[in-house]
Structures are given as structure tokens and as C-alpha cells.
Amino acid sequence: MLRERVRERLSEAVHRLYGLGEEIEVSVPEKPEFGDLSSTVAFALKAQLKRAPRQIAEEIVTYIKSDQQSALLFEKVEVVGPGFINFFLKPETIQQALRELLAQGHDYGKLSFGRGQRAQVEFVSANPTGPLTIGHCRQAVLGDVISRLLENVGYDVTREYYYNDAGRQMKLLGESVRARYLELGGKPAQFPQDGYQGEYISEIARKIQQQYGENWADASIEKFVEFAETELFGEIKRTLSRLFRRPPERVFDVYYNESWLYKPGFAWTVRLRQPSAGEDEAHAQRTRQSLVFVTNETLLQWLRELGLAYEKDGAIWFKATALGRPQDRVLVRSHTGEPTYRLPDIAYHANKLLRGFDLIVDIFGADHQETYQDVLAAVRALWEGGKLPKECNPDKIRVLIHQWVNLLRGGQPVKMSKRMATFVTIDELIDEIKKTVELDQAHDTEQAREDFAVNVVRYFLLMRSADSHVNFDLDLARQQSKDNPVYYVMYAYTRIRSIFDKAPQASWDSQAVQNLQLSEELALIKKLDEFPQIVRDATEHLAPHFLATYVHELAGLFHDFYEKHRVLDEANPELMQARLALCRGVQIVLERAFYLLGLKAPERM
């Protein structure tokens, strides 16, 4: 990478001049007149050297200019302002970056800093009490892309879904379905005060009636809960299969039941994956993993022993104020004896650490802002108090909180959905976009429209940082013009496919890239060269929007190049070979980025 080559020259200069091994920041300047790359290393050295950054920068630049290897890389190196160092690269240096990209092919942007480590990503984790809404959709897409990014840098990733299959909400679900079932049979029914509304509850009741007739009139609530949970969880898996483009049985590796944490002495193991082709069962057995080491009961005992649990008014409380939190919280309710969410959540996170992950990523909605801080405070106290072994350092846990999605049509919020009663489901959102898609007649298939609609939903939810609200503009999402960012990005890819469909066989040559001298050509190469760093940053910061933004910027540079310069020109074969090599480089990076973002590249637009 060009950035690494500049960093190497700076590192050598700093080491030779000052004997320091400083971490050096190299970035792309906002304006081209400030060079191809820039560094603020002189400001970072100010405190250690006790000298003005400008003086330090001038010494570094003098050293670099005297270095023969640097003379081959740079047209110019200059100091500007109070100590910024700007680097102007030679065209040959930039061209070499494209050759290296083409040599790596689809390994370009694959990194290894997670190799040999295990990561768990928990996301969605919606209770099976209804279909998934667009609120869940943002979390689902974020989790899927973060999992892909972690796998790309070498982590062995476990995708995990934790859900509340116990407690009041599941009981309400069963009562709601039972009431609708009795109504269908003309029997008196009392719908629960806080029951689940929406047509989907009646749909489940009708399925029970079709299968069992009137035989369930006196059935227990538990039977209704079990039936409804099975139906709804099947639908959740089908929805996520659609969104993730993975078979329903593979959308998650582990479904972690809250109820497991209620059973004293209970130890549950699962096989995280099926044996692959040619893999024997003995090896597959090693993929089994214990999931429960600590139950709610044990966890509560530990908190008592550490002086962090006490009884008041018949309830059991977590002494969160002793850990710097603003208020104590109920762990076990007085009137029912049932745990609140915090107790099993603390136990679940203790189990995550005991399962031996090197990195644990939790993706939560903004409504978990207070809860997760209490949970992490408790887990840290357990670790510091010796209840968890030293290798279970809570610093392994990273929490990503995302803000809400506002669905807009005609600039106005969209809230109502007949099926859900209050919110639009993921499937309804995809279907609404899908029915408006118009593609090239030869490629306008059901699957192509589905692919485009899913691309739109995923990309629109990835364009903004997780801590920003998303205004999902349905009118814009349905447009098939350059104003729609998804169309704009995909159109760049289909333009390249069209070029290669028309190009002579074996018509690009990486050695011909020396003919790429124009500003638009060099700008594209420099943008392609940024890809591995963007991938690293997106992974380290758990920030998929870095990649979504990059793809849009790359598409813009390609469109600019394409509209100004002819690629297929057999009268000038060497230039054509060079420009086709450039197009191939863009195609590779777009395909790599699409995979990481979970987008499917179209054949035609």
C-alpha cells in the first residue's frame, strides 16, 4: 500500500534521527494541492523532543530527500504550515500499486491480524414474539457485516442469537394466541391487557385450529407458547435468510436460550457446524462447545458473596451503586420471583467469557444503553473479585449501540402495518422496493428484483454510522437513477462488466499500466490502494459505514473516469490494455467490497 511505503520512510527517518519507534499516522489530504499523502508525525514528536513541530518536520524531510530510495518514490516532499509533511508520489509509484492489486486478485484486502483467534458476535436477539421489524433490520445488517469483516481478517467467528424464551413476554404471547384461538371457535376469551396485537397472532391461531380443531380449548398456555414460538422462530429464520443470503439453517451458528440459565447443574453443548465434505466425525466432534458454565443461581450466589446483591421489600437487588452506576437494580422480582433481564444477561456474559472467545461483540439498540453498562459493571466485578478466571478479562467485550430507523414516504414517517399493528416488517420493506424494480428486459427476473431490493435495504442501513439515526427514504430507495446511491454504485460495476463483454480476449495487461498518466486514472488507482486500510479501519472500529462510504466514492471516481475517457480503443492497444487493467482493478475491489457488505453484484442494470 502507498500509505505503508510512506510510513516506512517516515519510520526510518524518525528512528535514525531521534532513536524513536513512534507510531506514525499517514492520511489522505482533503485537497489534492496538499499532496497524495500527508503526516502529522512532527506534532506527535513535539512533547518528546521539546521542539517546535516545524523544526522537527524540516529535519525529517531533509533526511528523506537525502535517501536514494525515497527519490524513486516521490516527486516532491514538503513541509507546510506549523509542521505538516506532504508527499507527492511519482506516477510510477502509483502505477505499481495497481500492479500489486492485480497480482493479489480476490485476496486483495484480506488481512491476518485476527488469525488464530475466536470471536463471537451477538446480534438481532429479538424475542420470538413477532416478525422482525425494520428496527431489527439495522441490527441484523450491522451484525452480518461485522461478522464478515472479522472473518476477513482471520477470526473464527461464531454468529449468535440470544433470545428470551422464558418469562412474562412468552407467557403473554401464549395468552394472546390462545385468546384468538378461542375467538375463532366462538368461545369466550379474555385477551390479555398487554397482549400482542396484529394479524400475525390470528394467523398462528388459525394454524392451530386447522391442525387441532377444537381439541386445544382446554390446552395449557405452555402449549400455545411452544406452538407460537416455533412458528415465529421459523419465520424469523426465513426473513434473516432472505436478508443475509444464507440458508435458513445457517443464518446463525448458535441460538442461545435464556431458559438454559435457569436450570441448576445444567450443561448444554452444541456442534457449531456440520462436518464439511471429506471431514470425519471425530474432527467434527471437536467443534462441539459447552455453552453453559454458570446459571442464574450460581451467578446470584457470587454476587451475594461479593456484597453486590441484597434483599429489600421481598426482591433481590443488584448493588450497582457500589460499582459507580447511578442506581441499584432489581434482579429478582418480589411478586413473582422471576428474574429481571439483568440477572440472566449477566450470567450470559459470564458464560461468553468462560467459553474462551478472544473477542466478544454485542450489538444492541439504543434502548439497551443503561442495561449493558450495568451488565458489564457486574461482569467486571466478578472478574476482579476472582469469580471468573484471569483469562476472562471483560475488556474482550465490545458493545456497539445503534440508533433507530425512521421509514419515510413522501417525507412523512411510515408507521402502520396491518400485520404487525405498529411497525413495518423487514419482509414488507423488501417487498415494497422489489415490486418497483425495473431491470434490463433480458435480466428482469424474480431473483434479480429480489437481489436489487435486498441490496437497497442493506446499503441504506449501512451508509450511516451506527450511532446516527437513519432516515430510510422509500421514495429514494425505489428510484433507479444516479440519485439512488445503491443504483449509482451498482451501475459502476455493470459498466465494467459491459466493457469486458465487448473487449477482446486477454486484452488487459498489468505491465501496460505505465501508460496510465492522467489525473482521473491516477486518482482511481490511489482510491483502490486505500481499500485494505479502509477494511482494517472498518474492522477495528466496528464501523461498516466506512466501507459503504468508500464504495460510493470509488464508484464516483470510476464514473468520472469513464465519462471522460475511452477504454476500448483498438487503434491504441497499449493504452487500451492499461485502461482495461485499471477497470479490472476497480472490478476486483467492488466485488470484494460487495462481499463484505453482503451485496450481490448485478449482471445488468
Summed up, what is this model?
With 605 residues, the chain is of the alpha/beta class. Helix content is 49%, strand content 13%.
Present the secondary structure layout.
Layout: H1 2-18, E1 26-27, E2 37-39, H2 41-49, H3 53-66, H4 68-73, E3 74-80, E4 84-89, H5 91-104, E5 118-122, H6 134-152, E6 156-163, H7 168-184, H8 199-212, H9 221-244, E7 254-257, E8 269-271, H10 281-285, E9 288-290, H11 296-305, E10 309-312, E11 315-318, E12 329-332, H12 342-354, E13 359-365, H13 369-384, E14 397-402, E15 405-409, E16 412-413, H14 426-434, H15 446-462, E17 470-473, H16 474-478, H17 485-502, H18 519-529, H19 531-540, H20 544-564, H21 573-597
Parallel strand pairs: 5-6, 5-13, 6-7, 13-14, 15-17
Antiparallel strand pairs: 1-2, 2-4, 3-4, 8-9, 10-11, 11-12, 15-16
Helix pairs in contact: 1-3, 2-3, 5-18, 7-8, 7-9, 12-13, 14-15, 17-20, 17-21, 18-20, 18-21, 19-20, 20-21
Core attributes:
605 residues, alpha/beta, Gyrase A, domain 2, Rossmann fold, 5-stranded parallel sheet, 4-stranded antiparallel sheet, 21 helices, 49% helix, 13% strand, globular
Explain what you see.
It is a single chain. The protein has 605 residues and is of the alpha/beta class. It has helices at 2-18, 41-49, 53-66, 68-73, 91-104, 134-152, 168-184, 199-212, 221-244, 281-285, 296-305, 342-354, 369-384, 426-434, 446-462, 474-478, 485-502, 519-529, 531-540, 544-564, 573-597; strands at 26-27, 37-39, 74-80, 84-89, 118-122, 156-163, 254-257, 269-271, 288-290, 309-312, 315-318, 329-332, 359-365, 397-402, 405-409, 412-413, 470-473. Among the domains are: 2-89, Arginyl tRNA synthetase N-terminal domain (Gyrase A, domain 2, 2-Layer Sandwich); 133-161 and 248-271 and 282-402, HUPs (Rossmann fold, 3-Layer(aba) Sandwich), CATH 3.40.50.620; 162-247, no CATH class. It is built from 21 helices and 17 strands. α19 (531-540) runs antiparallel to α20 (544-564). The protein is globular, with a radius of gyration of 29 Å.
